[in-house]
Write a structure and sequence with these properties.
- The structure is a single chain.
- The chain is mainly α.
- The protein folds into 2 domains: 234 residues, Endonuclease III, domain 1 (Orthogonal Bundle), CATH 1.10.340; 56 residues, Arc Repressor Mutant, subunit A (Orthogonal Bundle), CATH 1.10.10.
- It is built from 15 helices and 3 strands.
- It has a 3-stranded antiparallel sheet, with no helix packed on it.
- Helix 2 packs across helix 12.
- The radius of gyration is 21 Å and the shape is globular.
Amino acid sequence: MSAGTLESAALSASELTSWYRTAARDLPWRRPEFHERYGAWGTLVSEFMLQQTPVNRVIPHLEAWLLRWPDPPSLAGATPAEVVHQWANLGYPRRALWLHRAAIEITERHAAVVPRDVASLLALSGIGEYTARAVAVFHYGDRHPVVDTNTRRVIARAVDGQSQPGPPSKRDLERMERLLPHDDGSSAVFNAAMMELGATVCTARNPDCTACPIASRCTWLLAGRPDTGDRRRRQARYEGSDRQARGAVLRRLREVDGHSLPASDVLADWADAAQRDRAIGSLIADGLLEAVDDVLRLPS
């Protein structure tokens, strides 16, 4: 049986999309009124925030962000300090600066309209393959494969019979392309359904196969759910990491008036002074902090 035939047998677009229409979570960026109010900009902001961040943490930050900056020009006019402060505890704060730069680029290059084509989206700061296609598909409704960790896990199990997906590769987009329905509208729903299935049912740990709409076709389930190993790269622990120190430095500066402090007062009681200094140095290198006359401040 060819790869294309095997994938068609394992995954049924009609079964998945029917399930999605009744089982999908009610998330702000999926509501028609969200798209009417914020357009493609709202989708772009949500996708930036959702990178490596759980949905429940994103929702309140997204709503506050879009109330403050409902379009690219409004964010473009903000200072980097305001942007980093508003990002709060979402993590990976470089995303905030990338989003700010993207807003400036959209305002200056595209007359304040988020572009539709993938190539133009990829040319914006901080936007990679996933985010570009997500905006083109989930706002504009175009036909492109959208692949995230959840999608890759569903394909690994349902098609390949593997308990976990391998490392990401360019082949992921090719495989998803073969699975997509031919018309734009159905393909957009199918993309969302694959992601939703992986996020809520076919989870990395303890998948609920009894609730899966494609259980009768799943190669992994039919094989008895074998443990085939996990070749994914492990993320370093957060506790005690430089990431934790970086977050603590930014949090301290966000909390004080003027968002600036003498360097000696920033995490003065941090247990590992070398780690604190390393965190401060990396934040300055990333443009997330400025050091002026032994004073640290959020970027101006």
